[in-house]
Amino acid sequence: MAMTRSFCFALFVVVVCGIFGQGSTSTASLGNTLETMKRKLENLERGLQQVQRSINQLTRCQAPFVQLGSSCYLFSYMKKSWSDAQAYCRSMSSHLATITSWSEDKKIIIYVQNNFPDYFTWWIGGNDMASEGNWVWVENNRRVSYSNWGPREPNNEDNEDCMEIFHDKKPEWNDHLCHLAHQFICEK
Ligand SMILES: [Ca+2]
Ligand SMILES: [Ca+2]
Ligand SMILES: [Ca+2]
C-alpha cells in the first residue's frame, strides 16, 4: 500500500511537471511568434511609409510644374510684376525660384533655352527691397550666396530691387525694376 502511494505521488509529480513544462514552452513559443509578427508589422509600416513618400513625390510635381532634378518649377507664360508673380507662385503652393547652385542654375538655363527661346526675362526670388545691396531669397529670407550676375550687375539703376534671369547672349542675372511685368519662375 505504501509503495502504491509512493508510485502515485511520483506519477503525480511527473504529470504536473509535464503540464507546467509544456505550458512554459507554449508561452515562450507564443512570445516568439508575437515578436516575429511585431517585426513584420514594423517592416510593413516602413514599407507603407516609403510608398506614401513616393506617392507624395509623384503628385507634388504635376503640370503646369515640371521636375528638373530634385526640384519642381513652373515657367509662366504670363507676365506679372515681381510681387504679383510671387503672389501667383504662393497661390500655387510655391514661391519665386530660389537658385542656390550652378547645378540648379544650369538646369533652369538649359530648360529655358530649349523651351522658351523667344522669352528673355524671368523673375526669380532674389530681392534687395529691405536693404539696398543685401540680396535675399523671398522663399526664406536667406542671403543670396551662389549668384550668376551679368557684367556690372547688380547696378541698382533707378533703384532696381528685384532679380531676374536676363536671357540675351547667355542667361545671366540682372537687378530690375520690380513693377515691370515679366515672365517668372516658381519653385516648390
Ligand atoms: Ca531652388
Ligand atoms: Ca537694389
Ligand atoms: Ca540692373
Automatic annotation (TrEMBL):
Residues 1-18 form the signal peptide. The keyword Isomerase does not apply. InterPro entries: C-type_lectin-like (IPR001304), C-type_lectin-like/link_sf (IPR016186), C-type_lectin/snaclec_domain (IPR050111), CTDL_fold (IPR016187). Residues 68-187 form the C-type lectin domain. It comes from the Eukaryota. It holds the Pfam family Lectin_C. Residues 34-61 form a coiled coil. Keywords: Coiled coil, Signal. PANTHER family: MANNOSE, PHOSPHOLIPASE, LECTIN RECEPTOR RELATED. This is Perlucin-like. It comes from Lingula anatina (Brachiopod).
